[in-house]
Amino acid sequence: MKDHSQPNHNCQTTAVSSSPSTPPDMDAGIWSKLPEELLELVLSFLPLKNLLNLRSTCKRFKSLLFSPSFVFKHSSSPFPSFLLLSHPQCFHHFPLYDTTAATWRKLPLSLSPLLPCATGAAQASLLTSSNGLLCFLLPNSFLVLNLMTKSSRVIEFPYYPFGFEIFSLIATPAGYNMFMISSGSSSKSTLLYDSKAQSWQKFNFSETVLSNNCQETGVYFKGCLYFVTPEPFSIVCFELESGKWGRPIPELPAELMFARLVSSGDGGGGEGKKLCLIGGVGRNGIARSLKVWEWECSGGMKWVEVERLPERMCKKLMSVCFHNYEHLYCFWHQGLICVCCYNWPEVLYFKVSRRTWHWVPKCPSLPDKSNCGFRWFSFMPNLFASA
Fold first, then answer.
1. For domain 82-379, which architecture applies?
2. Report field, pTM of the whole predicted structure over 0.85
3. How far apart are CA 266 and CA 270, in angstroms?
4. How many angstroms separate the CA atoms of 359 and 36, rounded?
5. Where in the chain is the domain with CATH 2.120.10.80?
6. C-alpha–C-alpha distance, residues 123 and 92, integer Å
């Protein structure tokens, strides 16, 4: 008599398991039934590269990525920010310095495929950057470009022949303006391009307000562009909405040998909470020290000194520019005040939060003997900046 309570060792049970390396495909119907808010949450965890690749996946993803709700929720996502170097020996290949990781990116940024035809690309030159947008000068037009979305707009000159100076790009979440002083006729005028209206505006320009020799571009602060005039140094501003010039800041610190302005809103699309002055202080045309001041609007409207460059670093900076201060320029980048020189491959920057000074090392991809012509820009990729 058989004992049926004992297990049958001749009977084998086969377990079927799927390999973890080949997960089953997710039913497309599940994605299509996900609520919009849940799909937005899933997409928000993806890296920037994956977000960009999703644009071509389907119309739904593309429309969702650029929807007002998604932009509003995720436009403040922390993307890497860079110092971008433009140099004649790096033709349309722009080295990038990652300021967060404090290192040079291994591969430079190549723009050749995104620029117009070969003739235009060969003659294109980078003018400026703002809020993730780059602006190039072409033979007969300007090109505004967003590298993240590969979107661009060609803006024709308002008339021909056309000459300009003191060019500035002001990009905000609502659009952008291009400011310049036209020099194509006997009398100069102020020109302003509005991306929303896609049109040019012309305003009067007073020769007594801004000298022909002014090398500074405009610094955007609280709806105005601010400029430093040559000696005797003073500050003038252009109000973007009204098109009027004025002198809102009556006095500058004494014994300035050169003066530059930066604003915490530059490049980031914001109004800016700080307006800072970087100046060389000395006598007889030679700067002996470099100081940073902040404009304080309340309590008497005055410049308050916040920092001074250490003496050893100051000597290096002054030897770099050979006391030719026209070669020096400054800009704000993600909490850094950058001091650059056209004929030097390094950048001096002041970390505002820690009040410390540092040098950005020379780019390793540059030739050992690099000619002058170093142009540095603040480049903060922005998926939602519209060209």
1. 6 Propeller (2.120)
2. no
3. 7
4. 47
5. 82-379
6. 10
